[in-house]
Structure formats: C-alpha cells, structure tokens
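Sample 3 of the quickstart, ligand iron/sulfur cluster:
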Amino acid sequence: MRQVGSIDVVRCMMCRTCVALCPGEAIDFDKVGYCYKVNEEKCIGCGKCIKFCPYGATSLEQRED
Ligand code: SF4
Ligand code: SF4
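Result:
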C-alpha cells in the first residue's frame, strides 16, 4: 500500500499553493475538467499539499502498490 494526494475539486479554490509546494511536480491542471488533479504516478505521498492547502481541499488516499 502507498499513499497519494487527492484534490476535492469542489473545495479547491485554485490558489496553486499545492502546485508551488509539491516536491514531485505531481499536481497538474486538467484543461478538460478545468481543475487541479494529482498525478498519482508522480506523487510521493509527502503530505505537503494536505498540510498547506488553505481550503482543506486535499487529502491522502490509500492505493495498492
Ligand atoms: S492548495 Fe488547495 S485550494 Fe489551492 S490549488 Fe491546491 S488543492 Fe486547490
Ligand atoms: S502528497 Fe506530496 S507529492 Fe503528492 S501531490 Fe501532495 S505535495 Fe505532491
């Protein structure tokens, strides 16, 4: 099991704090959905996006290896 970041698109205010802080450059802008999404292939599960999101829009989820 590993942990990956996840963004609640309803709560996300698109402030880009997580984009700037993410050490894996794992947060991409989805032009189709017009929202930010975590690229789970790049995410290292560090939790910075959870700690620093001002709107509580991020969480960690479990994934099978
Ligand atoms: S820090 Fe939170 S509100 Fe800002 S872009 Fe990231 S998920 Fe959205
Ligand atoms: S958990 Fe860390 S690596 Fe993954 S998206 Fe959030 S800040 Fe980036």
